[in-house]
Amino acid sequence: MPETITVVLVHGAFAESASWNGVLTHLHSTGIAAVAAPNHLRSVTTDAENVRRIVDSLGGPVLLVGHSYGGTVITEAAADDRNVKGLVFVAGFAPDHGETSLGLTNKFPGSTLGDTIRAIPLDDGTNDLVVDRDLFPEQFAADIPPAEAQIAAITQRPIRDFALNEPQPAPHASWKTLPTWFIYGSADKNIPPAGLRFMAERAGSLSTVEIGGASHSVMVSHPDAVASLIAAAVTHLTGPVSGEF
């Protein structure tokens, strides 16, 4: 009988672990074990090390799920980790060796994120980046209730600019050898849908879901669809789960 797999959810830039609350509710209702990992948003290298520690602490097989920059982090965290059995990208980056999150953002036209970013200088010469709180709802979460989007704006975690510009360290991207699944919205203003489609096709995604009209916060606006894709990935890796969506 296959071992029970644990889903580890990794948030991206300008978000935090609570962005997975709806997805967690759906997963737990079907008996799928899942945890949301804190992401410090300091560098690809250190953020991936943090996720590896969480994977190691679980002591069994894991499905990694990454949103946005969290996709970059899980790509690195899964490198040479035998406990990681698959990757799900939720409006997430899937970089190859040497690529950066910022470079993939700009590979295709359409992102309006740059106009909304505000920089906070740090002592080491780098900057913390945040999305302007007044602009956040329209830029990041246009398809969720305004009051909820405003809360997300004021609870966002800043990302260090170095993290978005750090080339992917692992010499062999983990999505080249692990099964992958992708889900994203057609109205994503952070990462152009054409870029997300490109990464899904390049990774050989087993299932790619594009939700019409969904924003970059697709896991908040469509937690059922995101959870359903994750459940399908778990089923692919381990066999049927008990619940239904």
Automatic annotation (TrEMBL):
Keywords for the protein's UniProt record, in alphabetical order: Hydrolase
InterPro entries on file: AB_hydrolase_1, AB_hydrolase_fold, Sec-Metab_Biosynth_Hydrolase
AB hydrolase-1 domain boundaries: 7-228
Protein's UniProt keywords contain Translocase: no
SUPFAM superfamilies named in the record: alpha/beta-Hydrolases
Pfam families (UniProt xref): Abhydrolase_6
A single MF term (Gene Ontology): hydrolase activity
Name by which UniProt lists this protein: Alpha/beta hydrolase
Organism: Orlajensenia leifsoniae
